[in-house]
Design brief:
Distance between the termini: 53 Å
Number of helices: 18
CATH superfamily of the largest domain: Carbon-nitrogen hydrolase
Helix content: 25-40%
Oligomer: single chain
Structural class: alpha/beta
Strand content: 15-25%
CATH architecture of the largest domain: 4-Layer Sandwich
């Protein structure tokens, strides 16, 4: 199994990577090698699929991959001709002419020929998925006999359906089911996947191989964590988390037959007569010498908080690398959000590629100055200091006549944030830096952020991380540091403040984060009503106030940069609320 990191749309680069892994598979004397879902195009290709030229180029790319399939059979994810979805076997490649003609497909290649095609049958259309916008569902179910072993092939969502293609393939005699995936990460999903796969293997009496992609694609993170489970649902092999991996395993196919016989399951004997199942026989082109079965050592599953941290690091690394940036700039305030963002960026890109910008105002404290300096020293990053007091006073002079007779309020606070946003973008323009914003999910939920100010930037690293989790991640990063904590202790222990007014604290404007975050999780991620949240033990007025803030901030979030998804429901593709919205809970 090849747990690879493709780049969406980089067809030549993805083909080169696939060809390189095929060489490794031949060296390992593999009979069969599986690549992830849509490995050739990357996932998700979105509206690239509406471009006829892109579709024709993907088929040229598949033909190039086929040239490298010598001495090994391969399952490769690609964009298929939708007309293939109803055919009994592979036919000569035809170039689709539009979205109505395409499928999310797996090519089975042997001897440099396309010997079978499987088109995904269950197209997810929820959360971050839009597959019904682009793809035609398949109807045929190929079962391949490779050197005497019967193999079923299906794709991602198909294996989540209990009575889906996996069941049909097992009934048709499949001993191994090869499932290829592009399954995005969120907290808790790794365990959920493994439980589902164990159930599917056990109830069908098949070995399941689950090949997942890895890497960052815009806000999505693919975590790898590929798996092979035996017919009893026990893990044989586990891929690495958040990095590419090449997994080789010898499978005891005979154990499947023995288990079925022992369980008295005769239903697998005659299932090949099902009308939608096609039996395709492939002779292995290279004889293999018998060898003793070797079960490799599997990585230890990560702690959930460690998973989140590694997802954020991978997301930053791939977004910066795949979009052609070399360095990033971060506005450092002395607070925990910017400190954590800087630590993640350093872990992703190295200290030489991270620049901090400290922009003190009349309200910036001595503690903030000291904590920024200490953070920069511990992370070994360069920090530029540009005071904004002069620019702020200039704005106040320019607006003095217009604002005459009105008391200072959030207007003056937001001016400071917008000056800082301008300075960050000026450095971005002059030096080619990507601006990483530092706002967290708690702030973004309730609109505690300034449009064109602290929201200005190219990538929002902790956009889907609650404030309470920010503290947990900061402590985790300090525990991991071999040379001592990198985030100053005072930064973590100080009361959070934007320092835009004298003596300002976040709790002057918001409920304590220990109260706010559970309410936000219930409302934003779980779609609980106000009454349901009150029943959880929160004060009614606090709940209604938080809901008003969330609903009234949609226009802000729509203008924010994209950020890394780490929860079950993130802002953006996951949660698509109308901006103009007259509905209010009564």
């Amino acid at each position: 199994m090849v747990q690879m990191n493709p780049t969406v749309g980089d067809l030549p680069g993805n083909v080169r990577r696939i060809a390189g892994w095929l060489r490794e598979a031949r060296k390992a004397q593999a009979d069969l090698v599986a690549f992830p879902e849509l490995a050739i195009t990357g996932y998700p290709p979105e509206d690239l699929l509406l471009k006829p030229k892109f579709l024709s180029d993907t088929h040229r790319a598949l033909r190039e991959v086929m040239k490298h399939c010598r001495g090994v059979a391969a399952v490769v994810g690609f964009v298929g001709d939708g007309a293939m979805a109803g055919t009994r076997s592979a036919r000569p490649l035809a170039v689709p002419t539009g979205a109505q003609d395409i499928s999310n497909a797996a090519a089975v290649i042997a001897g440099q020929r396309l010997v079978a095609t499987y088109s995904k049958q269950h197209l997810p259309n929820y959360g971050v998925f839009d597959e019904r916008r682009y793809f035609h569902p398949g109807r045929r179910i190929p079962v391949i006999v490779l050197s005497g072993t019967t193999v079923g092939v299906n794709i991602c969502e198909d294996i989540w359906v209990p009575e889906g293609p996996t069941r049909a393939q097992a009934m048709a005699g499949a001993e191994i089911v090869v499932n290829i995936n592009a399954s995005p990460f969120h907290v808790g999903k790794t365990k959920l996947r493994e439980q589902m796969l164990a159930t599917r293997a056990r109830e069908n009496g098949v070995i399941v191989t689950y090949t997942n992609t890895v890497g960052g694609q815009d806000e999505l993170i693919f975590d790898g964590n590929s798996l092979i489970l035996d017919q009893a649902g026990d893990v044989i092999l586990r891929g690495k988390a958040f990095e590419e991996d090449f997994l080789v395993a010898d499978l005891d196919v005979g154990g499947v037959a023995r288990a079925r016989m022992g369980a008295g399951r005769r239903k697998w004997a005659g299932g090949r007569s099902m009308t939608n199942v096609d039996l395709i026989v492939i002779s292995n082109t290279v004889p293999r010498k018998p060898r003793e079965l070797v079960l490799p050592t599997e990585p230890v599953p990560l702690d959930p908080l460690e998973e989140v941290y590694q997802a954020l690091v991978l997301g930053v690394r791939d977004y910066v690398r795949k979009n052609g940036f070399g360095q990033v700039v971060i506005g450092l305030s002395g607070g925990v959000d910017s400190a954590l963002t800087a630590a993640i960026a350093v872990d992703a890109l190295g200290p030489d590629n991270v620049v901090g910008l400290f922009m003190p105002s009349p309200y910036t404290s001595r503690e903030s100055r000291e904590d920024v300096a200490e953070l920069a020293e511990r992370l070994s990053i360069q920090v530029r200091t540009i005071p904004i007091t002069g620019a702020f006073r200039s704005y106040l002079r320019v607006l003095a006549v217009t604002f005459e007779g009105r008391r200072p309020d959030t207007t003056e606070e937001n001016l400071q944030a917008r000056i800082r946003g301008n300075l960050l973008m000026a450095l971005s323009n002059k030096f080619g830096y990507l601006v990483l914003t530092t706002g967290n999910k708690s702030e973004m939920s309730v609109g505690y952020a300034t449009l064109y100010g602290d929201m200005a930037g190219g990538f929002a690293v902790i956009k889907d991380v609650s404030k309470t989790m920010v503290y947990d991640l900061a402590r985790l990063r300090n525990r991991r540091a071999s040379g001592g904590p990198v985030i100053p202790k005072r930064t973590i222990e100080r009361a959070p403040t934007a320092e835009l007014a004298p003596g300002q604290k976040d709790e002057d404007s918001l409920p304590p984060y220990a109260v706010l975050d559970p309410i936000l999780k219930a409302y934003v991620e779980e779609d609980k009503s106000a009454e349901e949240i009150v029943a959880m033990g929160f004060q009614r007025e606090t709940v209604r106030r938080v809901i008003r803030l969330v609903d009234g901030s949609e226009y802000k979030r729509r203008q924010a940069p994209i950020g890394i998804k780490i929860t079950h429901r993130a802002f953006g593709k996951d949660r698509r609320m109308p901006i103009t919205n007259g509905y209010r809970e009564r």
